[in-house]
Amino acid sequence: MELPCDGAGICMVCKNKPPSEETLTCKTCVTPWHATCLVSPPQALSETLQWECPDCSMTHQPSTSALTSGRSEDSGDLIASIRKIEDDKSLTEKEKAKKRQELLSGAAAGPSSLDGEEKKEKNDVLDILDKELTCSFCMQMLDRPVTTPCGHNFCLKCFQRWIGQGKRTCAYCRVQIPPKIASQPRINSTLVIAIRMARMSRSSNGGGAAKVYHFVHNQNRPDKAYTTERAKKAGKANACSGKIFVTVPPDHFGPIPAENDPERNMGVLVGEIWEDRLACRQWGAHLPHVAGIAGQSTYGSQSVALSGGYIDDEDHGEWFLYTGSGGRDLSGNKRTNKDQSFDQKFEKMNEALRVSCLKGYPVRVVRSHKEKRSSYAPETGVRYDGVYRIEKCWRKNGIQGFKVCRYLFVRCDNEPAPWTTDVQGDRPRPLPVIKELKNAIDITERKGSPSWDYEASSNSFTPMDEKSSWVWKKPPPASKKRVADSVDPEDGKVIRIIKRQKTNVSVREKLLKAEFSCQICRKVMVHPITTPCAHNFCKACLEGAFAGQSLTRQRGQGRRALRVQKNVMKCPSCPIDIADFLQNPQVNRELMGVIESLQQQAEQEKLDNNPEECSEESDGVTEQRDVVSDDQIAEEPMDESQNAQKQNKETDGDDIMDPPSNVETMSPGKEQGI
Known about the structure:
Helix 3 (about 65-85) runs antiparallel to helix 4, helix 5 runs antiparallel to helix 14 and helix 15 runs antiparallel to helix 17 (about 660-674). The protein has helices at about 45-50, 55, 65-85, 95-120, 125-130, 155-165, 180-185, 190-205, 275-280, 350-360, 465, 505-515, 540-545, 590-610, 610-650, 655, 660-674, and strands spanning about 25, 30-35, 145, 155, 275, 295, 300-305, 315, 320-325, 360-370, 380-395, 405-410, 440-445, 450-455, 470, 485, 495, 530, 535-540, 550-555, 555, 560, 565. It is elongated, with a radius of gyration of 41 Å. Strand 18 (about 530) and strand 19 (about 535-540) form a beta hairpin. The chain folds into 5 domains: about 20-120, no CATH class; about 125-205, Zinc/RING finger domain, C3HC4 (zinc finger) (Herpes Virus-1, 2-Layer Sandwich); about 250-330 and about 340-445, SRA-YDG (PUA domain-like); about 520-610, Zinc/RING finger domain, C3HC4 (zinc finger) (Herpes Virus-1); about 625-674. By secondary structure, the protein is α+β, with helices and mostly antiparallel strands.
């Protein structure tokens, strides 16, 4: 490839500044070239005086092809136009150079535009970002983008190089750059994530070998959890889960009945003991291998395990005080750290337990032999102790000095507890007195009726203990997860409830819904502006958040006037003061162009995917217009007849007996119109 020297006189091929004796100047466009980097440099000194560069002469291309001949004709016209500009004595040297530049740029754009028509234009997200988000210094896609208060984006290294040269104005619009941004520029993380997602989507769609995922169906798993030879460790830390014997979904609430036990047709019985947590998982009593709480923060908790994880736990058999999860530093190799280092909050699994408390859901409870402080724990293994209901939850200062989440569990199962001699199950009992509630905070107590409640017998001749039971007073929550594969014992066919897979959301939708959404209104940004702390908002939302606030406020003590104090206006997403920026916020035009291009692409794709609906809508509009026009035509004579009748009523009796001639002449026209 042959390239000329740039504005600084450096060759764009060898990246060196050639000496004057190796520099050639084109007689047509007056562009400097490095002679040693040319494919066909001039051989004699006389040729250098009338030398034309490859862009002007096209001598390096063969003249036999039709395309080359066409381009040579265009180049001949270009040379003639340039010489005409040079011969024009009414123009100054600057005007001649400007006209030459316009002429050459137009000629260069011609072939590329033709090539662009021949090639199919790409409409993916990366092409849009490459078109809109370009650094004004390096002319490449932004790398670690920095946004100035005037709304222009640059690469971080290019911006730092510009500032290092002593420049304190924007390279695009020459607006003054604040000293804090010049010394500590913030990277716009929204643009970084957008570019990264676009590149990842391009690379994933580019082909290559697909990833292979190995999956073992439930019916092919062993009846007992095993450990591979490669990953064998003490305590089955890397053990493989065995077959799931029950047909309940992972988010099933309450006891596991016999109809969900195709192996034994018994269900999970109270007092059943398993060897370890992996075997307990196989029967669905408590699914997590290690975690003590199973549930979802917006759905509720299905089961808990009492295994001595927190020293604040108190176990009284029919009721116990359970401590939530969290508050420990488990980073690095501190996976078994039992020292609490921060407060627990009602979030994640703790929030799941609170949801079960408010809804009154039954929670399955398993006790492990690791709970050494409890008299109700089994001697070995893991035991299922029935279902409990959470009556209250709160937060208090724990034994280690940090706040912990506390839950009051009360047993409510139709089967007797393993440690009791009773024949019948539980009956409603008064709640125990909890002394720590006096100093508790964030107390949550159920106000409405619970979903799982005790139903007494309505037959007066039947003992209460025989017919009364704990039942679902409200429908149990619908499952959101799939059931593990199981085999029908009758015909051996695989029974599977397939979970509806979420459609892969395109990168464009992810960007519009997440990355390009305003952090105030949570909608796609309209007229986006970027603050000095690199957060993006709608211009109207940010101005509305600080509406009515002035930049300064007056201070005074009696008659003495003090100096005006500046008001601090913190960014809605961080504590940085943006008061100076709010005086004249500028729209990030490049980001707005990206958002508009993505929205137009989404609308065009919607039209392409549903052309029939669009045509039906358009047909409906035309039909409606036709009907309206017909009605208007039909209504016009009626309006005229009504006007005529009104005029007749307003006239006197003589006029009625002898109507005017204009009324007589209009009546036949009306009848014809009707």
